[in-house]
Specification:
Oligomer: single chain
Radius of gyration: 29 Å
Order of helices and strands: EEHHEEEEHEHEEEEEEH
Largest sheet: 8 strands, antiparallel
Number of helices: 5
Strand content: 25-35%
Length: 253
């Protein structure tokens, strides 16, 4: 920049020719960085550890849910946020059927892709939010909405119940599109299973699930592909045994 004087002795300042192009270049660079971060950078869920991301680590993590402490191998956790010691309201885990092992690269497809026939079992440990037992939920919440309270004999030593269809002039009962099955678990306790109705052209797994009471303050919900409904009793036994290994590990640590 150079100085001169015009008429009347006023000083004239000449601006540098590179200042404006440099400003435009910097602004363009910043905009490109913002767009690049938006499209390929980590999302808020990524930063919070709420995006599913498997790990092969078997290091156990101390996690408290309700009145129970669990020592969970990291390769059984779905979300990175669950791989640090904490107190939480719910914990999402998975395992492979029938071994109940955690994630391995050899089983990556089963763990990361929702495809029919997947051997993945999803397990949710959560703080109990209901005072009803499984028997009470059956009698007070489920049976009032079935077509026949006696049910029909089904396969695999299960009794099948069909829910009433939702009507336009009545609020949905929340169970439409599901079948309910009642059986006797290996420990002779009542077991209530829900299975989404199978669709011939399905592209994602049709799941069955059970919600059971683990302690006064903790409940367990597990889900598996309907293709393994014949193994329902063994799956129930193995899931509960798996949960107990997590609490046993906590108690001995």
């Amino acid at each position: 920049m150079s100085n001169g004087y015009g008429f009347g002795g006023e000083e004239i300042r000449e601006e540098s020719s590179w200042r404006y192009p440099l400003g435009i270049f910097v602004a363009t660079l910043l905009l490109c960085a913002v767009f690049l971060y938006h499209y390929v950078g980590p999302s808020v869920d990524d930063l919070q550890g709420s995006t599913p991301n498997p790990t092969i680590s078997e290091e156990r993590v101390r996690i408290t849910v309700g009145d129970r402490i669990f020592f969970v191998p990291a390769n059984h956790t779905i979300y990175p946020k669950d791989r640090r010691e904490k107190v939480t309201e719910d914990l999402h885990l998975y395992a492979i059927w029938p071994t109940m092992n955690g994630y391995t690269p050899a089983r990556r497809q089963d763990f990361t892709e929702d495809k029919p026939g997947s051997r993945r079992i999803d397990v949710q440990i959560r703080r109990r939010d209901s005072v009803f037992s499984e028997q009470q939920r059956l009698e007070q919440l489920y049976l009032p909405h079935v077509v026949d309270k006696s049910g029909q004999p089904g396969d695999y030593q299960l009794t099948q119940f069909t829910f009433k269809e939702a009507r336009a002039n009545a609020p949905t009962n929340g169970y439409a599109g599901k079948d309910m099955y009642i059986g006797e678990a290996a420990d002779s306790e009542l077991l209530v299973l829900f299975c989404y109705k199978d669709q011939p052209d399905r592209t994602i797994p049709t799941q069955c699930y059970r919600r059971l009471d683990f302690s006064e303050n903790v409940s367990i919900r597990y889900a598996f592909d309907r293709a393994y409904l014949p193994d329902w009793r063994e799956i129930d036994t193995q899931v509960r045994r798996f949960i107990m290994t997590l609490t046993d590990a906590a108690g001995t640590s």
